[in-house]
Design a protein that fits this description.
Keywords: Carbohydrate metabolism, Isomerase. It holds the Pfam family NanE. This is N-acylglucosamine-6-phosphate 2-epimerase. It catalyses: an N-acyl-D-glucosamine 6-phosphate = an N-acyl-D-mannosamine 6-phosphate. The structure is a single chain. With 228 residues, the protein is an alpha/beta fold. The chain has a single domain, classed as TIM Barrel. It has ten helices and eight strands. An eight-stranded parallel beta barrel has the order 1-2-3-4-5-6-7-8, surrounded by eight helices. Strand 3, helix 4 and strand 4 form a beta-alpha-beta unit. Helix 2 packs parallel to helix 3 and helix 4 packs parallel to helix 5. The chain is globular.
């Protein structure tokens, strides 16, 4: 799959993130596969998966769904931990992902290698690279380094203090302005259909939604809090 084919498949549509952290009741590969199947059945254009389950989750979901898979690994919870090394990126592709998502911020990577080497490795394996960024300059740099798409995944998560409540639509607009022909992925705190639609209006090619669709514990807590 090339970038143009992927862009055509996801343009104006939804990517669903099917992940669960350690200790979560859904932290089970089989449960995440069924979640991914349900999301694809509901109209998801692609599935983002991997997380702390790493490549077994990617492999199982890629084998179960007929939509593209955006794969990743997570190693730790601080600094660069989303597909943090060249080796991790290669493993994600070999597990069956058509796209590898990785931290593309300016923070140092654990293997000490530049982002360009991870992008090159992903392309050598025959997959596309999704750059997860937190800021405009990181997105521009990732695109210049060869990333096939830029995602706002880390907006609000690389600075001190809690992240804001809502998504960073301003970053979506800024990336579209600076990268007019790029595949821009809106991700991060899109908690309602209205906010997802707003991202498309702001210039995103597509939108990733995870928690608001795939975490019944979080959804239940929101309803419970509203009734108190």
């Amino acid at each position: 799959m090339n970038a143009e084919t992927f862009a055509a498949a996801v343009a104006g549509r939804l990517i669903v993130s099917c992940q669960a952290p350690d200790g979560h009741p859904l932290r089970d590969t089989g449960a995440l596969v069924r979640m991914a199947e349900a999301a694809a059945g509901g109209g998801a254009a692609a599935i983002r998966c991997g997380g702390v389950g790493g490549t077994p989750d990617v492999a199982a979901i890629a084998a179960a769904v007929d939509v593209p898979v955006v794969g990743l690994t997570k190693d730790g919870t601080g600094g660069v931990f989303i597909t943090p090394t060249v080796a991790a990126a290669r493993a994600v592709v070999r597990a069956g992902a058509q796209v590898v998502a990785a931290d593309a911020t300016f923070r140092p990577r654990p293997d000490g290698r530049p982002l360009t080497e991870t992008i090159k490795a992903v392309h050598e394996e025959g997959a596309l690279f999704m750059a997860d960024v937190a800021a405009l300059d990181e997105g521009v740099a990732a695109a210049e380094a060869g990333a096939d798409m830029v995602a706002t995944t880390l907006a609000g998560y690389t600075v001190p203090g809690p992240p804001p409540d809502g998504p960073d639509l301003g970053l979506v607009r800024a990336l579209r302005d600076r990268l007019p022909g790029a595949l821009i992925v809106a991700e991060g705190r899109y908690h309602s259909p209205a906010s997802a639609a707003a991202a498309i209006e702001a210039g995103a090619t597509c939108v990733v939604v995870g928690t608001a669709i795939t975490d019944p514990r979080w959804i239940t807590a929101r309803f419970a809090a509203a009734l108190r």
